[in-house]
Specification:
By secondary structure, the chain is an all-alpha fold. The protein is built from four helices and no strands. The longest helix has 91 residues.
Length: 171
């Protein structure tokens, strides 16, 4: 009987360890399968990250190229405005004062009405320059400053509008 009890006890211990062994192998197998699945997902994620990074880099390079081109265009526009501003100042002559293009004697064309008006005094009778169609220094400065402000606003508008079209442009 003692031998039967010992054999039964040994069998129970053996079954317990066998079950532990089988269970352990099952966990090991499940862990290995999960680990392989995780590694596959990591590889897929790395591949997708690389693709998305390349797309982002390409988009950034395209945007930088458009920005660089816009800066060149802006520089060209500013140079054009500066050239026109210099031309206006040159037309103002040595006095630096602008002329009224509608004033008599300012190249508006020939005609007796203009010739008779040319002899008429300006707003201030003692000022022969204004009688000759020159604008006052204050009005000249005002017009030139307003012209400069309008040019700056127009250049900024053109640049911003080009940027907006670039951002909204379909790829």
């Amino acid at each position: 009987i003692l031998i039967k009890i010992g054999a039964a006890l040994a069998l129970l211990v053996a079954l317990f360890f066998a079950e532990q062994y089988v269970e352990s192998r099952g966990y090991d197998r499940a862990w290995a399968e999960a680990n392989v699945a995780i590694q596959q997902k990591e590889a897929q994620a790395a591949t997708q990250l690389a693709r998305e990074t390349d797309k982002t880099r390409a988009a950034e390079q395209a945007l930088q190229a458009k920005t660089n081109q816009q800066e060149k265009d802006d520089d060209t526009h500013q140079k054009t405005v500066a050239d026109l501003r210099d031309r206006i100042r040159t037309l103002a002559g040595p006095s630096g004062r602008l002329r009224d293009p509608h004033a008599p004697g300012c190249g508006g064309g020939g005609g007796s009405a203009q010739e008779s008006a040319a002899s008429a005094p300006g707003d201030r009778p003692g000022d022969p320059a204004e009688a000759g169609g020159l604008l006052s220094p204050d009005l000249t400065r005002l017009l030139q400053s307003k012209d400069d402000e309008a040019d700056a606003i127009n250049l900024a508008y053109i640049s911003c509008r080009a940027d907006a079209f670039t951002v909204r442009a379909p790829d």
